[in-house]
Inverse folding.
């Protein structure tokens, strides 16, 4: 019995390591192409109402690619966090300060999780006749986000990761292993 437990643990450990390496490789290898719109997934807004450094990294990547004409619209998606700020509104304001036209920034204030962001993005884009999307988030979040967007019905998906890194990314990468399978099974 002890050998079986050890083998099961080793199999799980190898599976975890391989999957984590795949998530990391996929997240760092941007798939950039011309798309109809980009979606920036929300993250924490600080108590002073400014985007966190993590969120700024995502928004800066979106602004950089927008300026290079990779897409015409940016969908900012997020909910109202415990800090009391509408992430999407804060994100839009940040992008406007970066010189992006207000009309080209679309709000999704109901993107409380990755699934809701994908669902809401699909609805926004379908209503506008837009098909292809570029996902912008942290590297560890890209694989799961692409999975959900595919399951929602997107066929042409590009991705780009924020170049802002934190020590917290190690925990987030660990968490992504479990979140990926949760989303694979439930969404």
């Amino acid at each position: 019995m002890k050998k079986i437990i050890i083998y099961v643990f080793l199999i799980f450990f190898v599976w975890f390591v391989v999957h984590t390496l795949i998530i990391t490789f996929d997240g760092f290898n941007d798939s950039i192409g011309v798309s109809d719109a980009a979606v920036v997934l929300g993250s924490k807004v600080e108590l002073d109402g400014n985007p966190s450094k993590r969120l700024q990294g995502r928004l800066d990547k979106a602004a950089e690619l927008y300026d290079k004409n990779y897409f015409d619209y940016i969908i900012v998606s997020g909910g109202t966090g415990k800090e009391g700020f509408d992430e999407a509104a804060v994100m839009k304001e940040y992008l406007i300060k970066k010189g992006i036209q207000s009309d080209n920034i679309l709000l999704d204030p109901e993107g409380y999780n990755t699934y809701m962001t994908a669902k809401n993005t699909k609805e926004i884009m379908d209503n506008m006749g837009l098909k292809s999307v570029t996902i912008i988030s942290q590297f560890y979040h890209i694989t799961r986000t692409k999975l959900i967007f595919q399951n929602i019905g997107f066929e042409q998906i590009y991705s780009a990761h924020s170049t802002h890194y934190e020590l917290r990314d190690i925990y987030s990468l660990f968490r992504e292993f479990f979140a990926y399978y949760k989303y694979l099974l439930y969404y």
